[in-house]
Structures are given as structure tokens and as C-alpha cells.
Amino acid sequence: MIGGGINGCGIARDAAGRGWDVVLCERGDLASGTSSASTKLFHGGLRYLEFLEVRLVRESLRERETLLRAMPHISWPLRFVLPLDPLMRFDTATPVSRALGAVAPWLKGRRPDWLIRLGLGLYDGLGGREVLPGTRVLDLARDPAGLALQPRFRRAFEYSDCWVDDSRLVALNARDAALRGARVRTRAAVRAARVEGGLWVASVEGGGEVRARAVVNAAGPWVAEVLGRALGLRTPDKVRLVKGSHVVTRRLFPGDRPFFLQGRDGRIIFLIPYEGDFTLIGTTDTDHPDPDVPPVCTEAERDYLLAFASGYLRSPVTPADVVRTFAGVRPLHDDGSKSATAATRDYALVLDRSAGAPALHVFGGKITTYRRLAESALARLDEALGPRGGPWTARAPLPGGDFPVDGFEALHARLLADHPFLDAAWARRLGRAYGTEAWAVLGGAREARALGEDFGGTLTEAELAWMREREWARTAEDALWRRSKLGLRLSEAQAGRVAAWMGG
User: Fold this and answer.
1) Cβ–Cβ < 8 Å for 253, 278
2) Helices (H), 71-181
């Protein structure tokens, strides 16, 4: 397995659970690329309906509740508020808008309320909802959500999607894979691979070779590079790299409901309550030329997102409100779309046997469908290697997720009762990160000093040791920005102490 993002770790987990001998090699840290720089949502993709990607939307919607049940600690429902603006006109066209303009020319450039309601009705119907509530209409003059918005917004729709801690999702899939027998190797790039006697022989950075009956190339933005340079193969399939930039600001509005906002350029952004004291704003869609060029949120992209949000909020958002920016590169399957926004979010699995042993290449995909992608990948490998086991992940919780989908508050209360030195916020953070494994992280401690050094922000030596020993964290960045988001809360000096401890 090449690639330690969500697709690679999801496939590794599924394969290990079916009895395959799995070695996963990641050139950096787990989730160090795309999988830690998402908008952090399990969602169906309401916007995709305008591009007629109904199959992808249906699959994504049906996955939301499956995933919620498997990881109720790192994922939970959100009720999105979509304000309606009757004066909105859009500069870009989608297949749906072009059809609407053809049959009703007076609606050209508009996304009328009834069309949005129709889309949300499909959203509710396609999803097969059992846990998540359906769409409702809000009177913003009466609903608290209206207090954050400019007075011209009078009505809104409220609908369901889900939050997910993206980088912890990756770490937990890797952890479960390892618990089921997989060998997970980070900082271990596959430099080259060849076929000998019907087996792939891969040379791995750090020494040694890995022999395998099949290779899965889930390298994300580097899928084409691994395919050509490391494996020496060719395929007509191409990857389109699309950068998505995000801004983290101070908390911009009260409450726990995010906003779904429409822009005059036809794009949408989200404003999402983030880590208690912050707001996450994103995302953009721009083509990115080279996977080896680190993606960054430019000043122009930052200003675009702030202006977009300010067009809706009562109080404008300024650069002074920004505490962090980040960007990730989505490795989309290139379908020839004219714009990055229109490019498909669906995935393609390409099985190549030309070298004398099978290689499976993963193009595209979105975080919401990672589990289904893994099942599809195993089905393709069954074609090449013969079947071994069947699908099993739909009803299997991730580590720490073995409690009811509505049981987090009870878990939080138990944590507080069993560890009296915790305050409510600390217990909530630990419960959200580790679920039922929070007790193991705390190691039965009855007082804070039993957890070792206090690094600030409720981060202790005991938790860092867990990240290092059970979740492959090796650096301060691994711990503070991927295994957690405590980098938002620690000072430079505190982060330096974490770095010193991780290096010791």
C-alpha cells in the first residue's frame, strides 16, 4: 500500500480485516497531505446536484450515517443554515442552470428558492436518513441564526450534514489496520518497484524491501508520479490537482450551526464553528500545477474568503481576525472539465496487470466516500488475486467509537466522574479525540500531575506518549496539527517544548 492518506489507510484497514498481509508505506506523516487540509465534513455535496452527479451524491449521503455510527467521537451531525437572497445573480453556469435558462429565460443567472428547495428535497430523499433530521425553513427575523446575518436576509433553509476530524480519521483507520495485523510505516517512501517472479519488489526509504502480490497506489496528489516513476507503468487516466484554501478566524458568531453561503461567482463557501473558539471558512477551487509545490492560501484567496463571508455577516471579517490559513490539494480524476469547480469529485480505480503482477491505482475520491472506495478497491483486488473475505467495515466502529451515535454526552459525563481533575472542556476534547480510548490515554490517573509534563492547552506528556506510541506521531507538527489542533492554543514557547519532547 503506497500512501497514508484516508484512501490508503481505509483500504489498508479493510484489507487487513479480510486477512490480507498488508504493509502501508507513507513518505511523510499520516494525513500530511490532502487528508488533513479538507473542510472537515462528511457531506453529500449539495452543490454536486447542479452538475448532475446524482450517483455520487446518493452514495455520499448514504455513507454519512454509516460513518456517524462508526465514529461518534470524531464525527457528529451539523445543521447548516443556507440564507436565501432573492437578488442573487450568478456569473457562471452549471448543467442545471443552463437547462433552467433555456426553458425559463427570465431565470437566467438565478438559483431560485424553489430550485434550492427541490435540491434539498432530493438531498433528504436520496440519503435514506435514520439519524439526521430533514430540511426545514427558517424565519431569520425570529431564529437566532439571523442575528449573525445582515438584516436583508429574511429566510433560510436548514439542512443536515456532518462534521469529521479529518486527520484523526486517518490515524484511527491506520490504528485499526495495525490492530488487525497491518504494518504501518511512516517516513518510508517507496522509491522504486519491480516485478520478480510474479511479485512486486519495492525499495523503501530507510532500508529494506517489501515483496507483495499486488501494489495499491493511493498516493493522492502523487498518484501519477508513483505510477510512472516508481512503478514504471502507464495509463491514459490523469489526475487533476485542485487547491482548496481555508481561513481560521476568531469565533464570528454564537451557536453551533454553520452557514452555507452562495456567491455571485457561482461558488459556495462554509462558515463552520471550529475547535470551540474559532470559525473555519472555506474553500476555494483553483488548479495547482505541481504536487511537490506546497499549497498555501495566498493573500488574494484569504481576502476572497473574507469578502465572501463579509457579504453575509453583520460585522465584516478582516485580516486582523485571521489566526491561521491552510490549503490542501485535491487529487481529482481528470474528466476534462473546463474549471476546477466543475471537475468531478468521484473516484476511479484502475487495475493494471501489464507488469506481470497487479497494480491498483486510485484516482480522485472524497473523504465521505473513503469507506466505499476501499470496498470497491478490495473488489478489484479480488478480481486479480482471488477473493478473501467480504465487506465488513459498515458495522465496525473505529477505535474509541464503540458507543451509541447519541451517546457522547454520557461518555463525557463518565470521563468527568472517573477523573475529577478534568474540567468540562478538557474532558470534552479528550472524549472527542479518543472516545472510549480516552480512559487508556489517561491511564487511570486520579490527579493531573500523574499525566506528566503539562505543555499547555490541556496537552500532557501522557497524551503525547499515546500519539507517539499508538498513532505514529514523530514531530511537534504531527501532534499539534494532525493528531490534534492544539497548535491553535499553544504559544511558540509551549510548541517548542513539545518539539523538544518529541525529539527526545
Assistant:
1) no
2) 95-103, 113-126, 166-179
pLDDT tens, residue by residue, 370-413: 999 999 999 999 999 999 999 999 999 999 999 999 999 999 99
Dump pLDDT digits (tens) for 201-222.
999 998 789 999 999 999 999 9
Query: CA–CA distance from 202 to each of 8, 23, 115, 190, 195 (Å)?
Result: 17, 11, 52, 6, 9
Give the containing element (helix H, strand E) for 371.
helix 370-385
Q: With a threshold of 0.85, does the pTM exceed it?
A: yes
Alpha-carbon distance of 60 to 123, in angstroms, equals 10
Domains defined along the chain, listed by start = 6-32+167-238+344-395 (3.50.50.60), 76-162+240-328 (3.30.9.10), 408-503 (1.10.8.870)
Question: Taking Cα atoms as reference points, which of 247, 219, 242, 241 lies closest to residue 231?
Answer: 219
Residue 169's alpha-carbon distances to 9, 28, 172, 174, 349, in angstroms, are 9, 17, 5, 9, 22
